[in-house]
Design brief:
The protein contains 3 helices and 14 strands. By secondary structure, it is α+β, with helices and mostly antiparallel strands. The strands form 3 sheets. Strands 4, 5, 6, 7, 13 and 14 form a 6-stranded antiparallel beta sheet that branches. The protein is elongated. The N and C termini lie far apart (74 Å).
Length: 287
């Protein structure tokens, strides 16, 4: 009795599977705006078991039941729309302050028993000194140096929603270096010139959710150091941010300072620097 029930159940299951398989059909759905590669990951989870979805020549090829096809078509009506045109702006504000102060007394005294040499040989700033007939010198020097550097630049690029965009600007900077080779007969010094690419730009991929935007962004900034021309300052960020369309969104920055002092005998040196750099991004819809 049990064997008969099992056989009847198996026959029913086979017939049901065959019936479902026979009811499936293949339909080709052309994409109007979206790429097939974008749509397949969205549609695939909606296809019932036993069905398939592939793509070719920007056409979606679906094998499933008629009711499932109608469901897929209703979803495609919502997602197969024209991607929105966007203008992406990236702004960098850079502010660097530097000041150095140096001053104090120095003495040069010479006699038969005592000899004191001045530790200060600087020539910058205001110098006041007095020298007597014996050659003894007392010297006072005071110098102050201050500089402020401000830089602001904005990059623009047009793209479509969901598509990555890239923009880059820069220049090639010659950097000199020396190589010394010592042989048995002589020492040879060779001067080399290498060109370094000092460029700034960014990669960004925008995705819209109504009036909100999600950005995968990787900006890169480089500039020649103002004090050491052979040094290139580089700043990189990799992040994902979200915000409102038309608003500046902060994505990162740098805030660093240096405060140093050095006292030697009667000479006092102070140095202070403050560097701030902020990066913002804005996405606007172009209509």
């Amino acid at each position: 009795m049990n064997k008969k029930i099992i056989i009847i159940f198996l026959v029913f299951a086979i017939c049901t599977t065959t019936s479902v398989a026979e009811s499936m059909k293949i339909e080709i759905i052309p994409m109007k705006n979206r790429m097939v590669e974008e749509v397949i990951p969205i549609i695939k989870p909606l296809v019932i078991k036993g069905g398939t979805v592939t793509g070719m020549n920007n056409q979606l090829i679906v094998k499933t039941t008629p009711s499932n096809i109608e469901l897929i078509k209703s979803i495609l009506e919502q997602i197969d729309n024209a991607p929105r045109k966007l203008l992406i702006s990236v702004k960098r504000d850079h502010n660097n302050k530097f000041n150095a102060e140096e001053g104090g007394f120095s003495i040069k005294y010479d006699s038969k028993n005592i000899q004191i040499e001045s530790p200060d040989t600087g020539e910058k700033g205001i110098i006041v000194q007095n020298k007597n007939s014996k050659g003894d010198v007392i010297r006072y020097r005071k110098s102050y140096e201050e500089s402020q550097e401000r830089e602001g630049n904005i990059f623009y690029v047009n793209t479509l929603e969901g598509n990555p965009a890239f923009i880059n600007t820069g220049q090639l900077i010659p950097v000199r270096s020396q190589t010394t080779v010592v042989t048995s007969g002589a020492t040879v010094v060779k001067e080399n010139i290498e060109h370094h690419n000092v460029s700034s730009g960014f990669y960004v991929t925008p995705k819209l959710q109504g009036d909100n935007v999600v950005l995968a962004i990787s900006p890169h900034f480089a500039q020649v150091n103002q004090k050491e021309k052979n040094i290139i300052n580089v700043q990189n960020i990799n992040t994902t941010v979200h915000g409102k369309l038309g608003e500046w969104i902060p994505i990162g920055g740098i805030n660093q300072s240096l405060n140093a002092s050095d006292k030697r005998n009667l000479i006092n040196k102070k140095q202070y620097s403050d560097e701030k750099s902020s990066i913002f991004v804005k996405v606007e819809e172009v209509k």
